[in-house]
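Reading is simple: the token line describes the chain's fold. The lines below illustrate.

. . .
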Amino acid sequence: MNRLVWATAVTVLLSACGSSVKLDNVPVEDKSGAAVSGQGANSAGSAGVGNSNVATVDLGKSDQDAAMRASTRLVYFDYDSFTIRPEFQSVIEAHARFIRADKARKVVIEGHTDERGGREYNLALGQKRSEAVRKALNLLGVADGQVEAVSFGKEKPAVIGNSEAAMEKNRRAEIVYR
């Protein structure tokens, strides 16, 4: 009796795994790559890839310079830190590509801090922030002679005030083109 139950269970299980698709009558497409000739090929070519109505955009060097100078040039830092946050990696990579494209281009990285801390401490922290950005640019192939790192400490705040939002805006490194 037990064998009969097992045989029935195996039969039901195997029949459930079966497929109702008929494999004998599968349609076959011819993809031999036969050459297309005649008038149809010419008309298809004129309406296809070769002729496009999309105008090309040519960014001259001056347009690229203006675009890069207008783009994000700021790298913000956490409080009491000179570690570059991951969200600013793309900013640094874009500037590195732009600076590498012209070996005569010069950049100054200005490090800034918020108003907390002493004058010497903030000058040192601002210098570490600017050096961190300079090193990141160097790692991306920018020549060391093209980049200068300076610190303004807390002397040139972007936003006046002592709220946390104002201090966040002041903890930065600015990429300035010369």
About this structure: The two ends are 93 Å apart (CA to CA). The longest strand covers residues 147-153. The chain has six helices and four strands.
